[in-house]
Amino acid sequence: MLNLDNDINGVILGIDEVGRGSLIGPVIVAGVIIKSSLKKFKEVNDSKKLSIIKREKLNTIIKDNAYCYFASSNVAEIEEVNILQATLLAMRRIIKQVQKNYDHVLVDGIHSPDKTNKKIILVPGGDSKSLSIAAASIIAKVKRDAIMKKFSKKYKEYHWHRNMGYGTQEHITAIKKYGPSPYHRLSFLKKII
User: Fold this and answer.
1) At 40, which CATH number?
2) How far is 158 from 114, CA to CA, in rounded Å?
3) Around Cβ 151, how many Cβ atoms within 10 Å?
4) Neighbours of 114 (CB within 10 A)
5) Do strands 120-123 and 66-73 pair parallel, antiparallel, or not at all (unpaired)?
6) Residue 44 falls within a domain, yes or no?
7) Which domain holds residue 78?
8) pLDDT tens-digit profile of 50-60?
9) What total number of domains does the chain contain?
10) Is the whole model's pTM more than 0.90, yes or no?
11) What is the pLDDT of residues 71-96, one digit of tens each?
12) Residue 104: what are its φ and ψ, rounded to 5°?
């Protein structure tokens, strides 16, 4: 039930990421501040529980009725500092974009992007508990999927348009056959190549 936001007073910035477990590309973080009637968000849920068509539809509704923010960490940053630290870096970028125009920041997960920011509330499994986090999960997923489809046009042999860069058998077989692309996170491939 996505009712956590109802229990918190003030402006809520919900933050979620997508792409941490992927073998390629950036990790994308989105932030959402809902600005209109919650009735428009009644179908919003954890992006992993929604079909592609439903995510695309909700992506439009969210963008029309919320303040939306995006940030990312690229492959070089992921390789330099590790995926967790790169994700937290992208989350800090979101919080900086919003410029303190919030009362609370709900972050999906157990790691705070800024332990000095007392407005941050960690919500493990937040995309199934918080409307603003679930909305962020949807727009982040749609954005990253679009990036993966764009990458797939250049590197068709990896079938990223189907696997979104995750370690499916099809993707792993392609890596073994063709080697890594410039978009691959080499530290993620140590057990594959």
Assistant:
1) 3.30.420.10
2) 36
3) 19
4) 15
5) unpaired
6) yes
7) 4-153
8) 999 999 999 99
9) 1
10) yes
11) 999 999 999 999 999 999 999 999 99
12) -145, 145
